[in-house]
Amino acid sequence: MVKTFNTIEEMEQYMVEDKYEISCIIVDKIIESYPLDLPLRIMTWSCIEDGVDYDIECYSDHVVETLEQNLETLLEMEDYKRCHEIKKILDMENLNPKPNQTEWVDRDDDGGYDNSSDGKANGGEEYNDEEYDY
């Protein structure tokens, strides 16, 4: 969906006055495409005055936050059908949280950490796997 505005002021006015319509579009696109593997382009706003196209996207890492923000607007408008769909997705996200990406870090003998990609500890000595019984 591409929406064109003549001025920045017109675009800003739309964001304030048509908050419910925008929330419906965002929520419907997320529901339709859930779960998100790639960034989801929800809509594009084009402004003639500044000659810029603004892509409104949602990334999988932001699904929960985006739905929670739009839930408030939908509750105010008593759109319980969409609220119910949001709640189902939020429940799924809470049951299956995305794992934190942590980097494996090894402690060397002097209490420091070895994050090097060459397999050497901070002091430059090489790691010898034969020293350990598995």
The helix content, as a percent range, equals: 40-55%
Structural class: alpha+beta
Low-confidence stretches: 101-108, 113-125
Strand content: 15-25%
Query: Ends: how far apart?
Result: 59 Å
- Count of individual domains: 1
Question: What string gives the helices and strands in order?
Answer: EHHEEHHEE
User: Could you report the average pLDDT, rounded to the nearest whole number?
Assistant: 83
What Rg do the Cα atoms give? Answer: 24 Å
What is the strand arrangement across the widest sheet? 1-2-3
Number of strands: 5
* Biggest sheet features: 3 strands, mixed
- What overall geometry do the principal axes of the alpha carbons give? globular
H/I helix tally? 4
Quick description:
This protein is α+β, with helices and mostly antiparallel strands and 134 residues long. It has one domain. The protein is built from four helices and five strands; from the N terminus they run βααββααββ.
Which features characterize this protein?
134 residues; alpha+beta; three-stranded mixed sheet; two-stranded antiparallel sheet; 41% helix
